[in-house]
DNA sequence: AACAACACTTAAGATTTTCTAATGTCATGA
DNA sequence: TCATGACATTAGAAAATCTTAAGTGTTGTT
């Protein structure tokens, strides 16, 4: 950590190297080309070695320069991230979360009290919303989405692996023989989302039954009413295991036939990259990850 | 990358934070404490937020400061590594390697030509040496050692996982029935190093034979003469698989009984941390890792 | 309560670093 | 040969950074 060269000269070096031209670097730094030339010379004198080859027509990084660049590049990236983390964090004591409807009501609302208690200074706001609109329009800090994690231009971090399971209320199961035939005769509360449909197809082929043998009672893309109907003993339904974890633990719902379909569609935290450096987001991510990881089911 | 705060102020901030004191930081930076105070103020103004709490007896980092520190710490570490890589690389066109005797003669010497051809500017020197003396005394760039990778004060990087196998020349095997009894009746060329001894004990217990049933013909801690004797058909020997890989491939030695003892003792590259940032070391590490990884045995 | 000790802040001016402007060098291509 | 483009060099201007010296607030001592 001692005897570092002038830090400014390193910054100039980075620009010069990235542009392969002193002149271009000078323009981007809003200084004259002479200033760049001097800073590079200064750095080279300090390190006692050349960093650019100037012998022929074009100035190019030489071997030593190429070795140095990745270190300097990373260092300045780190600094920029740090600055983003503390300086450009808007309303550091407000946390605006947008999540799909089901996650908000089944996971976040029931559990958020623990987080709120650990972070009393934070004012937490939810925007239940199934569409992932532009972060700029929405003015939210972080989104929770179900999907494959491919959100162009945004950083996404997988929260947990998920599977689709078949659940029903113990109420409805008591009234029927619990063999395959009785179960598929129960009304199906059907989620028409593509990943759930995939699971239903898999279920049918696994147990060698025809899709037409299942009789659908309710069709929607929103898990919340499906789960509520299932709780009320209205039928069986295929749902994300994470969303019903709490109901399984309490016994209000049970996993029927121990069927599970591993789906690549799962929960992701999604936001522009620099949001993840904010203090409030780091706290929220840590809390949510722990919550889902410690889930004993 | 735009609009970074003055880099000097970040450096001062780092010192102040690490010492929890402006005065201590000032001393380490060889400036007055007033200068530190001003730099910190400058940074705080630039970021438009406080980084230290000054209200009570001691100046301490506050939440924002604690969030920023790891970024700045890492950034300056990166810079220091980069500087070490290019500036303090002594004799960049000489590569001095110290390795244990067996590695030098069985692995390095036979293969080094490929490396030399890719890096004609490098003058390569070997110091076969089984003792790991201080790097300062020895004046070598890098060491290759067999062990567990615990070299206090030095960075060590595992090259490959190893196992101890039982080998013999096809010459000697032709002349005997290849059953267990015939094999253990062959003379044992015995490596008395502790990891090999462990393998021999494991071998005996695996095949339920008494240690005394093996008759030792040669005892040494150096694998080279053992392997040479084995090649000449003088007996069987337990050796590191890596060291005889070439002989196994060519058929000069064969793996007897397909016995293998997974040992935690294996090859490590060892050097002071900053050596690993030198261009010549990075090239050598890359080449050696590839060589061992691509080893088809 | 008065006072010294300590750590940090602030302001003014000195010092050092970094910049610009002007000019020089060298290679390239019309 | 001459114009052009990219970088180097220099002197002096501008800016950033430092020191000195005085000020603030807290702590501990007498």
Structure description:
- The structure is a homodimer of 297-residue chains.
- The first copy, chain A, has 297 residues and is an alpha/beta fold.
- Chain A folds into 2 domains: 7-86, Arc Repressor Mutant, subunit A; 94-297, D-Maltodextrin-Binding Protein, domain 2 (3-Layer(aba) Sandwich), CATH 3.40.190.290.
- Chain A contains 12 helices and 12 strands.
- In chain A, strands 4-3-5-12-6 form a 5-stranded mixed sheet. In chain A, strands 9-8-10-7-11 form a 5-stranded mixed sheet, with helices on both faces. A two-stranded antiparallel ribbon of chain A has the order 1-2.
- In chain A, helix 1 crosses helix 2 (22-29), helix 2 (22-29) packs across helix 3 and helix 5 crosses helix 11 (241-250).
- The radius of gyration of chain A is 28 Å and the shape is elongated.
- The first copy, chain A, starts with 6 loop residues before the first helix and ends with a helix.
- In chain A, 32% of the residues are buried.
- Chain A binds a DNA duplex (30 and 30 nucleotides) through residues 6, 8, 21-23, 31-39, 41-42, 54, 56-59.
């Amino acid at each position: 950590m001692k005897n570092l060269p002038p830090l400014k000269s390193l910054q100039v070096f980075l620009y010069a190297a990235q542009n392969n031209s002193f002149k271009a670097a000078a323009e981007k730094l809003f200084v004259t080309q002479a200033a760049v030339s001097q800073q590079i010379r200064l750095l080279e004198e300090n390190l006692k070695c050349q960093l650019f080859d100037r012998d022929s027509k074009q100035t190019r990084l030489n071997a030593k320069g190429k070795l140095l660049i990745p270190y300097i590049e990373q260092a300045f990236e780190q600094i920029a991230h740090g600055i983003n983390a503390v300086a450009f964090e808007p309303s550091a004591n407000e946390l605006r979360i947008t999540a799909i409807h089901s996650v908000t009501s089944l996971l976040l609302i029931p559990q958020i009290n623990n987080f709120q208690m650990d972070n009393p200074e934070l004012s937490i706001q939810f925007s239940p919303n199934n569409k992932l609109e532009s972060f700029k329009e929405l003015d939210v800090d972080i989104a929770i989405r179900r999907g494959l994690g491919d959100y162009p231009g945004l950083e996404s971090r997988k929260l947990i692996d998920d599977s689709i399971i078949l659940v029903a209320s113990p109420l409805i199961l008591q009234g029927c023989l619990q063999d395959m035939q009785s179960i598929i005769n129960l009304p199906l509360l059907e989620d028409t989302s593509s990943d759930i449909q995939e699971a239903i197809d898999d279920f049918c082929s696994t147990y060698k039954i025809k899709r037409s043998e299942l009789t659908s009672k309710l069709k929607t893309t929103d898990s919340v009413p499906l789960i509520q109907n299932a709780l009320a003993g209205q039928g069986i339904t295929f749902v994300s295991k994470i969303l019903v974890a709490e109901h399984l633990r309490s016994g209000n719902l049970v996993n029927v036939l121990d069927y599970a379909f591993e789906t690549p569609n799962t929960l992701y935290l999604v936001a522009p990259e620099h949001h993840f450096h904010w203090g409030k987001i780091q706290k929220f991510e840590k809390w949510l990850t722990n919550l889902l990881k410690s889930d004993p089911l």
